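Revision sheet: structure tokens.
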Amino acid sequence: MVDGNEVIYSSDWVNDLENEIHFNWHYQQAAIVYDKCNKSSNILEIGVGTNLLSDLLHRRKWSIKTLDIDEDKMPDYCASADDFEYEDIDVILAFEIFEHIPYNTFKSLINKISKSEVSSVYFSV
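Predicted:
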């Protein structure tokens, strides 16, 4: 349950995504980080999917942590994005995740992030 709404999720779908299109998405997401972010920034990826993006950035020595509601994906932080405290986070990456959040929760989350020290949010839906 998130914000009083049942949220359905599963880590099973990630096993079907490793194709050329999927890798191209992550290439584009990484390109945004390389172009727009500073390597010393504390980056948080919300919704880890297959961990491909965070693994790539880790290997290239970027400071990135992950947040996901699904503990089976082994995120650094297992919590709802709306419940998370965004202390010491400079940049948020949320690719293909906001469309899975109930609208009222999304509004609350955006309000919470806007009041935090987060300087940039990069997302796609």
